[in-house]
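Database export, one record per block. Field names are fixed; values are copied verbatim from the stored entry.
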Amino acid sequence: ISTLIFSAIFLIASPALAQQQSFLEADTISVDDATGDINAQGNVLVAFEDERVSGDQLIWIKSEQRILVTGNVVFTQKDGTKSYAMAMELDEAMQRWAITQIKSYMQNDTRLGAAHAARTEATRVELSDATYTACPECEDSDAEPLWQLRAQTIINDEEKQDIIYRNTMLE
């Protein structure tokens, strides 16, 4: 019941999200009456239209329109790509985000990993200290793939349909 009540508050409190299909679920949700900041603990799930973020804890800083999700973060994008990380920071409209220590599995069975990834514009994602491979994952998920590209920077510009690799090596 508290999730249902909170979902309504969540939509009313954020006009940008009220126009989208969005909600927040968690085992425990609390709202700071003075600031409007929201703290959610346990089995946290935030949905924005076709994208979802889950994790162990969420802190929504209303004055900054910023959401922090930490612990066992899973980010599911509208194309089906699933990314795993320990922390993610995003804006209320899910237009911009940043993720640390990301490992992504895309629909075409390719994989990306990066120390840092960020959506800096609605159609542009930048990854630093990144790897890419189409090699099937080994039985031991910690084992290195047979081959991978390692790049200092990868830029995916969805609007231009360009993927740019900078300072890249084949390993």
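Remark 1: The two ends are 52 Å apart (CA to CA).
Remark 2: Residues 1-13 have pLDDT under 50 and may be disordered.
End of record.
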